[in-house]
Each structure stands twice: as structure tokens, then as C-alpha cells.
């Protein structure tokens, strides 16, 4: 009998086991089955063409390249995932409807216990409080289950919606920096910092399944039962 047989995707990549629920929200690691739905949201538009809310202007790619670019990016984050550097991108659903992605990226996490949140939300779904709720769910996961001490974020100063989400969740300003946004375009990026004592939680309790395989994948020890 081969007791080491691989039977599920979780056997191949621990974060696939993760399931986070917070009120009507559900967050799970992005699977290949999620990617077509995410591409549809991206192609429908995440922001006005004249604006660029992302530090890397990935939505400027031609529409015929965006689907393959999107798939390649999410595949690459899985392939490069290790305790020394990892990005956890979670597909977000509200009442079962796919609405966007909430992510967290870090390096040397076992030492620094911090990293940066990032997210995107389908354009027609913005302005309904979903962005705040998904950020709260991710931060609660990090503080309560992955032993984070601080969480950072960033937004351009001309992106008031993102800055408002950060304020609602409890982030504080952590400096403003001059950066190139699009080729040849100067912009100001505001850095933000969230600590445990300032975290504003959701009114809904957080329910988490499959945390043990994720902790193992990032090098954290198993919790005592």
C-alpha cells in the first residue's frame, strides 16, 4: 500500500486547504477554476483608463494579453511560494459571487512578521464596503492565525477610496514617497501601517479552516491542539 499517494490539490500545495469566512465573505486560495472568472472581472474594468491605482500598471496591458498575463501571474505566485518569500492571493466571494482578490506579500516572514496587503475588486462592485470587509478578513487571518505583528499597505495619494479603506481598518500614515507610476509619470505613494492594537475588526466573527497546511507551507510550527 502506498501511503504517500497524492490524492488532492492540497497534497500538492497546502494553501489550497484554506477557507476563511467572515459574514457573507468567503476567501480561498485561487485555483485554476477561479482564473476565468477573475479575468472576466478584469476585462469588465477595474478603474477608469486615465487612472492607475496599482503600483505596477498591469491593467495597462492590451485586453488580448490580460487573460494570459493574469493566469501566468497567479501560477507564478504558487510556483515561487516558500517560507523565505511568499504571496498569498485569495479569491473573494460575497454570497457565493466572485468579486475580486485579496492578497498579502512578504519576505523573511519568520523573522520580520510583517508584509503588505494588496487587493482589487470588480468595478461595478466598488463602493459597497466589500473592500473594507475583505481587508479586515485578511488582517484578522494574519494577526490571529499567522502570528503577524504589523501589516503594511500603500496607495497613491490620488486614490481616496483605497486610503479610506485603510483608515477604516485602522492603518496609520507611514510616510509619502515619490515613485514612477506609469513610464515617465511621477506619483506620490502613501505608505500605511497597521498594528494589532489599532486593528478595527469586522462585526462578523472570523471562521477559518485549513490553517495547519498553510502554517506548514510558510514554516510556522503546528499549533498545539
**What's the order of the H and E elements?**
HEEHHEEHEHEHEEEH
| Overall pLDDT level | 95
Gyration radius, in Å: 18 Å
Class by alpha and beta content: alpha+beta
Number of helices: 7
Distance between the termini: 29 Å
Low-confidence stretches: none
Spatially, the strands of the biggest sheet line up as 5-4-3-2-1-9
Proportion of helical residues? 25-40%
For the biggest sheet, the summary is: 6 strands, antiparallel
Write a structural description.
This protein has 225 residues and is α+β, with helices and mostly antiparallel strands. Helices cover 29% and strands 29% of the residues. The mean pLDDT is 95.
Short descriptors:
single chain, 225 residues, alpha+beta, 6-stranded antiparallel sheet, 3-stranded antiparallel sheet, 7 helices, 9 strands, 29% strand, globular
Amino acid at each position: 500500500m502506498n501511503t504517500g499517494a497524492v490524492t488532492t490539490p492540497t497534497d500538492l500545495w497546502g494553501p489550497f486547504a484554506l477557507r476563511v469566512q467572515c459574514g457573507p465573505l468567503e476567501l480561498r486560495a485561487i485555483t485554476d477554476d477561479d482564473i476565468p472568472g477573475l479575468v472576466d472581472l478584469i476585462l469588465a474594468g477595474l478603474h477608469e483608463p486615465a487612472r492607475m491605482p496599482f503600483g505596477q500598471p498591469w491593467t495597462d496591458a492590451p485586453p488580448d494579453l490580460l487573460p494570459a498575463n493574469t493566469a501566468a501571474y497567479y501560477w507564478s505566485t504558487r510556483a515561487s511560494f516558500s517560507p523565505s518569500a511568499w504571496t498569498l492571493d485569495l479569491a473573494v466571494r460575497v454570497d457565493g459571487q466572485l468579486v475580486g482578490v485579496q492578497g498579502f506579500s512578504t519576505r523573511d516572514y519568520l523573522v520580520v512578521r510583517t508584509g503588505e496587503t494588496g487587493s482589487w475588486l470588480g468595478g461595478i462592485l466598488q463602493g459597497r464596503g466589500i473592500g473594507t470587509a475583505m481587508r479586515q478578513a485578511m488582517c484578522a487571518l494574519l494577526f490571529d492565525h499567522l502570528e503577524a505583528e504589523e501589516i503594511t499597505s500603500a496607495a497613491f495619494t490620488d486614490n481616496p477610496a483605497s486610503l479610506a479603506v485603510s483608515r477604516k481598518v485602522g492603518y496609520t500614515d507611514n510616510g509619502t514617497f515619490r515613485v514612477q507610476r506609469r513610464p515617465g509619470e511621477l506619483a506620490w505613494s502613501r505608505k500605511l501601517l497597521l498594528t494589532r492594537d489599532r486593528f478595527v475588526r469586522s462585526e462578523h466573527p472570523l471562521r477559518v479552516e485549513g490553517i495547519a497546511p498553510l502554517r506548514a507551507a510558510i514554516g510556522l510550527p503546528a499549533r498545539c491542539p
